[in-house]
Amino acid sequence: MNKQVKHNWITIIIPAAGLSSRMAGKDKLTIPVGNSNLLRLTAEKALSSMASEVIVVTGRTQHARNRTINGLDIKLVHPDSRINQMSVSIITGLNAVHYSSEGILILLPDMPLIETADINMLIENFHHEKIIRATNKHKEPGHPVLFPKSLFPAIMATKGDNGPREVIAMNEDLLKLVKLDNEKAMVDVDTPESWDQWISEYNKTGAGEGT
What we know:
The protein is α/β, with parallel strands linked by helices and about 210 residues long. It has helices spanning about 40-45, 65-70, 85-95, 115-125, 150-155, 165-170, 190-205, and strands spanning about 10-15, 30-35, 35, 55, 75, 105, 130-135, 140-150, 175-180.
């Protein structure tokens, strides 16, 4: 992480405890991508950003995922609950956030087009009371999303897979949209078809920007 940059203390939370249930038995986060994999690539992008700390949330028994990020300068935490929901993962990450953190950026690990520069753009647009949300080129809201400290209690109270989406819906007056290139803010790889499309472009370009 670039600790020389003067900015608010921002924590990146990567919720990576999902079950890849739509991937026909494969774990999308540990499938080889070149010499790496999606989870490690995401963590490395986060570590290269302006953020002050990176927290990765995985299940205690997701040993392959835990091994793949071994040695990185991250904080690895696991939910106590066996309930696999987005809100549980994010709350687990939020419980581990440094007390100085002024905001948390939720970085989904299955959105491979998000780059360090995109993360930094969101952080640079951060204001203490604003929710910073990425959009595509058509200004349709997507991910990542950066929440200010004032909304931490609201996030802690969420349940289910909607989680922070409910917090956004209840605080639309605080929302600031930041446009990323093309469809970066929208593209995820949570099915074999979407994975095959992305990896085909990745193998051509090294980044999958064509998806």
